[in-house]
Write a structure and sequence with these properties.
By secondary structure, the chain is an alpha+beta fold. It folds into 2 domains: 6-120, 3-layer Sandwich (Rieske Iron-sulfur Protein); 131-338, Naphthalene 1,2-dioxygenase Alpha Subunit, Chain A, domain 1. The protein is 21% helix and 32% strand. The protein contains 6 helices and 17 strands. It has helices at 146-153, 159-162, 171-174, 199-205, 278-308, 321-341; strands at 6-12, 21-25, 28-34, 40-44, 58-60, 63-65, 72-73, 79-81, 100-103, 106-111, 134-142, 177-182, 185-196, 210-220, 224-233, 247-259, 262-271. The strands form 4 sheets. The protein has a 7-stranded antiparallel β-sheet with strand order 11-17-16-15-14-13-12. Strands 5-6-7-8 form a 4-stranded antiparallel β-sheet, with no helix packed on it. A 3-stranded antiparallel β-sheet has the order 1-10-9, with no helix packed on it. Helix 1 (146-153) packs antiparallel against helix 6. It starts with 5 loop residues before the first strand and ends in a 16-residue tail after the last helix. The relative contact order is 0.14. The model is unreliable at 353-357 (pLDDT under 50). Residues 7-109 form the Rieske domain. Keywords: 2Fe-2S, Dioxygenase, Iron, Iron-sulfur, Metal-binding, Oxidoreductase. This is Aromatic ring-hydroxylating dioxygenase subunit alpha. GO terms for molecular function: dioxygenase activity. It is an enzyme of class 1 (oxidoreductase).
Length: 357
C-alpha cells in the first residue's frame, strides 16, 4: 500500500544529531545520524549479523559499531571490521544505505531503488525557505492509516465542528468548493467572501470586521499536502488568484507512513506576516499544535472504529471529493508500481505445424 521510489520525510532537521535515531518509514526500519560535516547518514536499522538494531549502536567518529558483537560500519553501510579480530571484512554483509536530502528544514529519505533517487522530486515547500516568509512546526505520531490524514486535510469542512473554537466557522459548510486533478496532484479551492474571521485569523489580522477568506488545498503524491490559507479585509482587493493583501499562511503537512495503521505526521505553517516576531512564532506554533491535536484525537478514534466495524465502508459525499481524488491518484500510481514489478512472462516458442505427407 506504499508508493516506492519517492521521498518521505524522516525527521525535522533538529531531531537528528550525532547519536543514532530510529524511525520506521513505509515499514522499513531506518537509523539516522549526523556525520562530523553535519550531513546525514541513513542506514537500514538492523545489523546483518544477528539483526540487533544499529540505532542501539556505538558511534565511533562517523562510523557505527553494533553493540552486540562489534561489527563496524561506515556511513555508507560498508563493513570495516568483523566480530572476530583480524578477519577480513565481508562486504556481502554491507548495510543498505538510503539516499537523503535535507531541505526546507526537513530530512527526506528515498524509499525504493537508490539508483532512481532524484532530489528534484522532493516536493517544493517553497514558503519554508523563502526569505520573506518564516516557518516552524512540530511532529505527532498518529495511530491511523496515513490516507485518513489525507482525507482530513483535503476536506476542510470538518473545521466547522472539529475546530469550533479556533479556525472553524459555519460558512465552511456553505461555500462552494472546486476540485481539480493535475497529473499526480489534486487541488481543492474554497473562496469565502465577506465572512467574519474565526478567532485564529482575527487575532492574526489584528482587527475585527468582515473578511475575504480562502483555502486552497494541494495534494502532492505520495503524501504531502500544502494548504494556502488566510484572510484579508473586505475591499483590500484579495482574490482567489492573488491574496497577499491580508495575512497569508501555508500549512505544511508531510505524512510518512510507518505501518498500515500508524503515521508520522510532520506539520507546520509558513507565514508572510510578523516574520521577525519570534515570540509570536512560538505562540502561533503552539496554537496550531492544539488545532492539529484535535485532528489526531478524531483520526485515531476513526481508525479504531474502522477496525471495529469490518463490515462497513467509508462513504464519499461531495465534500470528500479532494480526499477521494487523492486516493484515486495514489491507487493509480501504486497499481502502476505493481505492474512494473511483475515479471514479464517468457514468449512461448512457436509450435511447428504438423508435416503433411
Amino acid at each position: 500500500m506504499f508508493l516506492q521510489d519517492r521521498w518521505y520525510v524522516a525527521a525535522w532537521d533538529h531531531e537528528v544529531d550525532r547519536q543514532p535515531m530510529a524511525r520506521v518509514i513505509c515499514g522499513e526500519p531506518v537509523v539516522l545520524y549526523r556525520k562530523f560535516d553535519r550531513s546525514i547518514a541513513a542506514l537500514h536499522d538492523a545489523c546483518p549479523h544477528r539483526m540487533l538494531p544499529l540505532s542501539m549502536g556505538l558511534k565511533e567518529g562517523d562510523n557505527l559499531r553494533c553493540r552486540y558483537h562489534g561489527m563496524l560500519f561506515d556511513p555508507d553501510g560498508a563493513v570495516l571490521e568483523m566480530p572476530i579480530k583480524g578477519e577480513r571484512p565481508n562486504q556481502a554483509l554491507c548495510v543498505r544505505r538510503y539516499p537523503v536530502v535535507e531541505r526546507h528544514r526537513l530530512i527526506w529519505v528515498w524509499i525504493g531503488d537508490p539508483a532512481r533517487a532524484d532530489d528534484t522530486l522532493v516536493p517544493d515547500f517553497w514558503p519554508c525557505s523563502h526569505p520573506d516568509w518564516t516557518f516552524d512546526g512540530g511532529y505527532y505520531p498518529i495511530a491511523c492509516d496515513y490516507r485518513l490524514v489525507i482525507d482530513n486535510l483535503m476536506d476542510l469542512t470538518h473545521e466547522t465542528y472539529t475546530h469550533q473554537g479556533s479556525i472553524g466557522q459555519p460558512e465552511l459548510m456553505e461555500a462552494a468548493i472546486e476540485t481539480e486533478v493535475r497529473g499526480e496532484e489534486v487541488f481543492v479551492t474554497r473562496w469565502m467572501p465577506g465572512v467574519n474571521a474565526p478567532p485564529f485569523w482575527r487575532d492574526a489580522l489584528k482587527q475585527d470586521g468582515p473578511v475575504d477568506r480562502w483555502q486552497i488545498c494541494r495534494f502532492i503524491a505520495p503524501s504531502s499536502i500544502l494548504i494556502d490559507v488566510g484572510v484579508a479585509p473586505v475591499g483590500a482587493g484579495a482574490t482567489i488568484e492573488d491574496h497577499d493583501q491580508g495575512v497569508r499562511g501555508m500549512v505544511i503537512d508531510a505524512l510518512t507512513p510507518e505501518s498500515e495503521t500508524t503515521t508520522h505526521y510532520f506539520w507546520g505553517m509558513a507565514r508572510n506576516f510578523d516574520i521577525r516576531d519570534q515570540g509570536f512564532t512560538e505562540r502561533f506554533k503552539a496554537q496550531q499544535g492544539r488545532v492539529f491535536a484535535e485532528d489526531v484525537e478524531v483520526l485515531e478514534a476513526q481508525q479504531r472504529s474502522i477496525e471495529r466495524n469490518p463490515g462497513m465502508k467509508l462513504r464519499g459525499f461531495s465534500i470528500d471529493a479532494g480526499g477521494v481524488r487523492s486516493r484515486q491518484v495514489l491507487a493509480r500510481l501504486i497499481r502502476a508500481q505493481q505492474e512494473e514489478a511483475q515479471p514479464v512472462p517468457p514468449t512461448p516458442e512457436p509450435v511447428p505445424s504438423p508435416a503433411h505427407f
